[in-house]
Fold:
Amino acid sequence: MGEFELLVKVRERLPPPGPRVRLGSGDDAAIVVPDGATATSVDVLIDGVHFHRERASLAQIGCKALATALSDLAAMGAEPGEAYVALGVPTDLDEDGCLKLLDGLAALATETGTTLAGGDVSRAPALTLAITVVGHAPAPERLVTRAGARGGDVLVVTGELGGAAAGLLLLESPEETRSSFAIHSDTKNERALDSPVGAALIARQLEPQPRLEAGKALADAGATAMIDLSDGLGGDASHLAAASGVGLRIDASSLPIAAGVAEVAATAGRDPLDLAAGGGEDYELLATLPAERFERASAAVGGAGLTAIGEAIAGAGVEIRLPGGGILEPAGFDQLS
Amino acid sequence: MGEFELLVKVRERLPPPGPRVRLGSGDDAAIVVPDGATATSVDVLIDGVHFHRERASLAQIGCKALATALSDLAAMGAEPGEAYVALGVPTDLDEDGCLKLLDGLAALATETGTTLAGGDVSRAPALTLAITVVGHAPAPERLVTRAGARGGDVLVVTGELGGAAAGLLLLESPEETRSSFAIHSDTKNERALDSPVGAALIARQLEPQPRLEAGKALADAGATAMIDLSDGLGGDASHLAAASGVGLRIDASSLPIAAGVAEVAATAGRDPLDLAAGGGEDYELLATLPAERFERASAAVGGAGLTAIGEAIAGAGVEIRLPGGGILEPAGFDQLS
Structure:
């Protein structure tokens, strides 16, 4: 498989470019006419570090790589524009495998209105994806950084927490544990799941969805700071607090924990709050906004759901308060990525 | 070495951001206010495929990775803007090594006015760099693609050819060959070179310079198509010819061959034209323009030098004509990247 031949086949399968793209893949560079401001982020994912080929299909790996990159754009409130994909291909991945991976990636690109505008392919000792995404906004001040939270702001989170960590526990668990959730493996890369709850948790882990619409809605509703939950609520809240120069007080009892997380945690002998606050990879958005804007923001976010989980206060650091009055120290959690 | 700690140290060493950059590295995404159009390109480089750690210093590897990426912007006639660096770090590269590599990269960024606006770091089985560069232009039509050459256009090349291939031959040659050019190795990664010619050839291979100013000058002077010479004159000319739907006729005797290439080729039993036309990695620019614009373009390119080497004709493909009337078929050439 030559690099040129693969790139030609890839280009044939790409969805048509978005309206800002004047020239897509195939020249020295892509040409884009941006709006007033761009938000650009790069993520690198490597087999054995961020994912394991034996646990996910190639399409899922491609999809998740783009999803995690787009999640950074969601956290800025940017509209997704273009993605540039650098692919390192090991000798045991043939052309068909590369195309499966890129099909998974292209499916999410189509779904989110992202143009795959360029790429590069190389041999590599392990499957490697480096994805650069560019998002757009009418003006730079419409993008939300981590740095604008003010004391008194309400702290909100989209969707539900802990699902990705529970999904990872299911994927790592022995067959008999998984089957207690009526989950069984068909083949190496295709899992037949009888339990909708278990399937949903595994999907949270393997096929995360970037909260692009919620991110734009929160930006438009006046979010003062925003970050996506990749490392886990505790860690990512710390980044936001440090960047904004505030403290964050989180009420553990208010965390929106995904269905099935409690059961999986119990089976694994873990505290469900550990999964929700320390697990990471949920790719939900954590944001601050003036308290009086919460209702409007919640309506704008719509179906994804928005939960007030605490507040920004003068000070520094993150405190997760337990119902009994104690403080949660989320245990470190081995992440798949 | 944690990812966060390394990124903090890297950020401390970055030169100040350029005027378009509103928010650099450290948030979910960088925020940039572009001009009218952007040119974006991504390159991935992996140890053992595109470079060899035993042949180049870490600073040279970082420098070359950015140079090859910026060369794509030069080939569009874009002004360099931002670079985003995804770094895969093997276990035998410590924090100090990472910083050396990034210092090499940052030095070229400073020299070219490129802002290192974002990045990601991961463990990896082999040293991996994926670099996305964004260039700017006032409007999309000011950028030069590969596709605009017309029959009758003069074909031009900047600078000199064959130097990078000759440098590679020197690096690969046994000590006694190198010493015939008065070149000797001091330590594994630092070469003391007594011969300015040999040193220049090795520098062409290990520290290529993107022709950013020449690219802008050619674009402003009315270049109809442009590409950078990464794969070699023969191959890259074919890409330009195919994209433009023209043939290219090249006069081999007019090729500007770098000083020392003939001597190195003779020692290696190679034809110097093979190195100049098939060697690649010179990162010079190949462009077409209306013949009456050649003088103006040559003056605008200035010190780098511009040579007319042939013409675009109706038809397809690339023909490199030898002085005796034969046709050169450039031999395939093993490239370092």
Notes: The two ends of chain B are 29 Å apart (CA to CA). The longest strand of chain B covers residues 79-89. Chain B touches chain A through 61 residues (CB under 8 Å). Chain B is about 35% helix and 25% strand.
